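Notes from hallway chat w/ T.B., transcribed later so I don't forget. T.B. wanted the structure written out for a chain they're using in a teaching module, and asked if we could keep both sequence and structure tokens in one place. Agreed to drop them here.
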Amino acid sequence: MEQLVELSYALDTFYFLISGALVMWMAAGFAMLEAGLVRSKNTTEILTKNVALFAIACIMYLLCGYNIMYPGEAVSAYWPGFSFLLGAENEVSAVTAGGDDAPYYAARSDFFFQVVFVATAMSIVSGAVAERMKLWAFLFFAVVFTAFIYPIQGFWKWGGGFLNEAGFQDFAGSGVVHMCGASAALAGVLILGARRGKYGPNGQVKPIPGANLPLATLGTFILWMGWFGFNGGSQLKLSDVENANAVANIFVNTNMAAAGGVMAALIVARVLYRKADLTMALNGALAGLVAITAEPLTPEPHIATLIGAAGGALVVFSIVILDRLRVDDPVGAISVHGVVGIWGLLAVPLTNSDANFATQLLGIGTIFIWTFVASLMVWVALDGIMGLRVSEEEEYEGVDLSECGMEAYPEFTNS
């Protein structure tokens, strides 16, 4: 019997680690997507941000973020308290003792899986503030966000806090990860302002094309692949028939939602612009993935496709509306992860009888208000201390040269 328990423990731990590795691969997807959707003169800087934010997320979540989000003993359902570093690994005797309280995967594998989620949330901010923010101001914000802002709202749901007690449902993080990252991004964009030349004096919206759409497409496919770990790993267990079937269903639903998102965005863009807009199709795929993340287990595959399709259609209209409101988001991150994240959370009661709209609205409001207000305070403080925005001349020349001292495409003429 002990050998079966240890084998199950090893299998679930391995699955958790592989899922975390897939989610870590999403960092490459965000880097490629964002690098493809910015102008060539800003490519090196955005790649630097993506590498550095991942490292910062790992360090800060290790130092304090993980134990804030998953405290051994919280002060209350609203405040987790502070503790630092990781605790001890599971003892063999605790694993083999059996029972409902016995750990069924390594504690370190849980940390690894969770740390790549916080890096994902921070990556959402990166694209929204691209092309005009100082690199080091962004990195200082990343320290605060990954150490405190994200873990506190994560505790309220996944750490057993008051949202979890209230019955708020968010399986893999449409709210805890995606809407949280988008809320922080929105606060930053409002303080930062639009890129120069993006909007005309009479309300005109001037497109600023990305430099490398093949790279953006590659990034989207990498994210699509990594999302199988994002949603599938959130089942937390694989080593019995029930959980193995659940993981398979999650993979299928995740894939179908992305497909539905692509086609819906493509069709809506065709109706609006009479063209097949690649960037809208890419955002449609990501919107479908975000929409299904709140509940990828309970829908039937055809319903998951429709949930993703609704997200894909919604993201096109959201991008257009935010542009008209002069909220300049170069990669559409606020629409993809924020607006569609809200839709994903509201869609949960359609297939999950444990959820209701009132509780889902409570979770949406709580995560948004906390993240937006806390992030706004940090952005304002950083703006006062060191300034958030590069100079007009630096923005014109490109932040690659002013922030990194090198160009991504030195043989090309900056666009």
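Follow-up for T.B.: The two ends are 66 Å apart (CA to CA). Might be a good example for the class.
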